[in-house]
Design a protein that fits this description.
Layout: E1 3-7, H1 13-19, E2 24-29, E3 40-42, E4 56-59, H2 72-75, H3 93-111, E5 117-121, H4 127-130, E6 141-143, E7 156-161, H5 180-185, H6 197-202, H7 206-216, H8 220-227
Helix pairs in contact: 1-7
Length: 228
């Protein structure tokens, strides 16, 4: 049995996937767990929880809006750290830079933790973020939910240390581009503006996390069988 920490998750999707295999699993986030689990810790992941003897750390949704390539235009104009030509409504450049620093701090704290196996879910980073990353950070593996039986498009990056890349388990045939089904598959990207948009867009997929649990932390009896 492994001790596993699921960081930056409130949905419980990843926690339940790993716990179903018989592991000692806890999640943590600044917000309480949606499912009311007593195996969820409300805390900042940087505040001492990373050094509690975990075998595997899976960080689900650390702040990434200012680190990803799609958000780069709000952070800088041409070159590096020149004032953007345009900013989001109601936001200052100082606000965005503070969010950038928060994302960098959380990501690097998790990647540098003294834990043998680490998986951090994050989109491919922009050049400003890459310049602040640890030297040993690999290129992320990019996977799609439909590789794991989920009828959805959402390119998901996994930065992995001590873990194998995910192998697809139930790849669905893709719908015709522009069809109604194709539009349904893109519902994550088409989520309307509102207070829940970020939560909807960052929510884990059950199929993907089930595959991750089985491939990164097999059930204890499977581990014993492999060793015999």
């Amino acid at each position: 049995m492994k001790r596993i920490l699921i960081g930056c998750e409130t949905s419980g999707i990843a926690r339940r996937a790993f716990a179903a295999l018989g592991h000692d699993v806890w999640s943590c986030d600044l917000e309480p767990a949606e499912d009311g689990s007593n195996r969820h810790i409300v805390c900042d992941i940087r505040d001492g929880i990373l050094d509690k003897g975990w075998d595997l750390l899976a960080v689900m949704h650390p702040p990434c809006t200012r680190l990803c390539r799609s958000g780069r235009r709000w952070m800088s104009g041409p070159g590096q750290w020149t004032r953007p030509k345009k900013l989001p409504n109601g936001r200052s450049w100082e606000d965005l830079k503070a969010e950038f620093e928060l994302g960098i701090s959380i990501f690097t704290a998790c990647w540098s933790a003294s834990i043998d196996c680490v998986a951090i879910e994050n989109p491919e980073m922009n050049d400003l973020a890459k310049a602040r990353m640890p030297a040993d950070l690999p290129v992320p593996q990019i996977v799609q939910p439909f590789w794991f039986g989920e009828p959805a498009y959402k390119a998901t990056g996994w930065y992995l240390r001590g873990l194998p890349e995910l192998t697809e388990t139930n790849r669905l045939p893709e719908p015709e581009r522009g069809s109604d089904e194709w539009k349904r598959w893109n519902k994550v990207h088409r989520a309307p503006p509102g207070p829940d948009r970020a939560k909807i867009r960052s929510r884990s997929f059950v199929g993907m996390m089930t595959a991750a649990a089985r491939q990164w932390a097999p059930a204890p009896e499977k581990i014993r069988e492999a060793a015999e």
